[in-house]
TrEMBL record:
This is ATP synthase complex subunit 8. InterPro entries: ATP8_metazoa, ATPase_protein_8. It is found in: Mitochondrion membrane. It is a single-pass membrane protein. It comes from Aburria aburri.
Length: 54
């Protein structure tokens, strides 16, 4: 069974992880978000929910 032999799969895993962390991640982190978070205070609802069975 090939999944029990870690020799080829460990190399593939390491190459994939290195590719993701060294090439793709810096490119993704360089993008600026289009919807930046605002400093707006959240709206607090003061009336409680009325349950029909209480």
């Amino acid at each position: 069974m090939p999944q029990l032999n870690p020799n080829p799969w460990f190399t593939i895993f390491l190459l994939t992880w290195l590719t993701l962390s060294l090439l793709i991640q810096p490119k993704l982190l360089s993008f600026t978000p289009t919807n930046s978070p605002s400093n707006k205070t959240p709206m607090i609802k003061t009336t409680p929910w009325t349950w029909p069975w209480t």
